[in-house]
C-alpha cells in the first residue's frame, strides 16, 4: 500500500476531495494572495538588468508558468519529487539581493543570472537528501518559534500593502486605509455570521468587494493592457544560452541553502496545520521539488523557486487543507502564463486590497505558531529565552534592513531574511539549552 493510499484510508485532510466550485474558488484565492510576490521578483530583477517592458512582461509570464508547474508537482507529487501537501510555489525573494548585484557585474547580465540559477538548482538536488535529516533538530519548541516568526516577518508586507504599497504617492492616505479596512471587515463579518463554504472563500469575497470599490474609486489601473497579446507561449532560453560565472554560482548556492532552511520551517508549519507528520522522507521530497523547480527555472527564463509562506496563512485561515486546492491554483497560474491580458487584470489589484487580507492571514500564521508553543514547557526559563532571542533576531532585518550593512555581501541571503535568522538561532539555542544539556534525548524528540 502506497503512502498516499494509506493517508487516504486514514482520512488525511490533505487528501480531501472538495466540490468543484469550492475547489476552484479557494484555489483562486491562493493565486490572488501569492501573485504580487510572484510578479515582484521578475519585475525587480528585470529592471536591474535593464530589460525592456516587453522583456520584463515575458519574465513575469515565465515565472507564472514555472510557479504553476512547480505548484502542481509539489502538491500532487511525481515519484520522489513533491511533498504532496497544499503548497504554493513561486520565485524566491531570498535571491533578489544576490541577483540584483549580479545584474550589475560586468559580463554577467541576465544570462549569467539564469546560469547561476541552473547551477544552484543542481546543487540543491544533490544536497536535498542530506538536508532532510535536519528535521530532528526542529522539535515543537523550534517549529513554533519559527512559525510565529514567519507570521511576524510577513506583517510589514501586509502593512505596506494596506498603506497603498511602497510606490504610493501618498502612503497611508485615507482611501488606502478605507479600502484595506473594508476588505478586513468583510473577511471578519463573513467568518462571524456565515459558515462552511462561505468562510472558506471569505478572503476571496473580501478582495472581490475591495476590487469593485477600488475600481469605482478610480484606483484600478488597466492602462497598457490593450498592447498585451491575447495569447503567448513561454519558450525556453528566450534570452539565449545561460552563462556560468564562479562568484554568482557560489552566491546562488548559498541562497539555496537559505531557501531550504525557510522551506523546512514552512513544511513543518503546514504539517502542524494539516495534522500530517513531516518525516525526513517527505521533507526530502519537498526540498527536492524546490531544487528541481529552480534547476528548470533557469532554462525557462526565470529564477530560484521556493514555497510561499503567505499561503500557509490562507490554509490556516480557511481551514481547507486539501492539496487539490493548490493543484487547481497551479493550473490557474499556468493558464495566466498563457493569457497575458488575464494576468494583467490580476496584477491590477490595488495593494490596499491585498493589505486588508494580508493582516488577517499573516496574523493567523503567527497565531498558529503560538498554538504550537503551548505543546512545550514554555514555563522553563531557557525555553522562554530561546523564543525571545530567536524571534528578536528574526525581527532585526524586518525593523532595520540596514542593521547588518557592515557584514560581507555574501551573508545577505541570511541577514536579510527574518525567517532564516529565527530558524538558525532557534536551532542553535535548542542545541545549546536542550540537546547538549541534561534533557538531550527528551528535547530531541520534542518532549519536555
From TrEMBL:
Top-level taxonomic group: Bacteria
One Gene Ontology cellular component: plasma membrane
Key word Transmembrane present: yes
Keywords: Cell membrane, Membrane, Transmembrane, Transmembrane helix, Transport
Subcellular location: Cell membrane
Any Pfam family the entry gives: Xan_ur_permease
Main location: membrane
TM annotation in the entry: 20-44, 56-73, 85-106, 112-130, 137-162, 168-190, 197-219, 239-261, 324-346, 352-373, 385-407, 413-433
InterPro entries recorded: NCS2, UacT-like, Xan_ur_permease
Keyword Cytoplasm: no
Family: Belongs to the nucleobase:cation symporter-2 (NCS2) (TC 2.A.40) family.
PANTHER family: PURINE PERMEASE C1399.01C-RELATED, URIC ACID TRANSPORTER UACT
Identification of the protein by name: Putative purine permease ygfU
Protein species of origin: Pseudomonas knackmussii (strain DSM 6978 / CCUG 54928 / LMG 23759 / B13)
Gene name linked to the record: ygfU
